[in-house]
Design goal:
single chain; elongated
Length: 193
């Protein structure tokens, strides 16, 4: 068992940068060691399996992109405006750290190609959606699990568009997310709490 949490974190952060910059094929233990400036074999010592490294990366991305207390503060606006504000804040946080957003997309692509990675990333991502549904219900926001899932899909599309070849290079992705969330919330039924 490896006992240096700071070195482990350095390996994970280096892996995220390598994945975000080079894609799944560029993510090797050797590339992570080189990027982190660590001796060859360090990444493999901490994460013998690719799936284990991928899960640690996913957990780190979600921790780094977690909303601030200000983002989660009870809004003064009407409940109908809180959901669009939360969704826009997610897009803003992700695009402020594009290598992390790209790494998230790459993690999902790796899971699509590798059963071992899929087995650890799939449950982790689904648990994240379930936590978002709980947050949504706890805040008394309109809609429910269906609205949260639709918002996840829409945010993923906005991110993919912005991080690759934007269909409208002049569009503000945060404003797109806010307007999309407003429209989704306007058509949502009561919460399925």
């Amino acid at each position: 068992m490896v006992a240096n949490p700071q070195r482990r974190l350095s390996v994970i952060d280096a892996a995220l940068t390598v994945l975000g910059d080079r894609g799944g094929r560029g993510l090797t233990h050797r590339a992570v060691d080189a990027h982190a400036g660590l001796p060859v074999g360090t990444a493999a010592n901490y994460f013998p399996s690719r799936a284990g490294l991928m899960l640690a990366m996913a957990e780190r991305v979600f921790k780094l992109l977690a909303p601030s207390p200000e983002d989660l503060a009870e809004p003064d606006e009407a409940r109908g405006e809180a959901f669009p504000r939360y969704v826009a804040a997610v897009v803003q946080r992700l695009l402020a750290r594009p290598h992390l957003a790209t790494a998230l997309i790459e993690l999902r692509l790796a899971a699509a190609r590798d059963d071992a990675v899929r087995e650890v990333i799939g449950p982790f991502l689904r648990a994240g959606v379930a936590a978002d549904v709980d947050f949504h219900r706890d805040r008394g926001l309109p809609g429910g699990s269906d609205l949260v899932l639709l918002a996840h899909h829409a945010v993923n599309g906005i991110l993919l568009d912005q991080l690759t070849v934007p269909l409208d290079p002049e569009a503000d992705p945060v404003d797109l997310a806010r307007r999309m969330a407003q429209r989704l919330a306007a058509t949502a039924g009561p919460s399925d709490a």
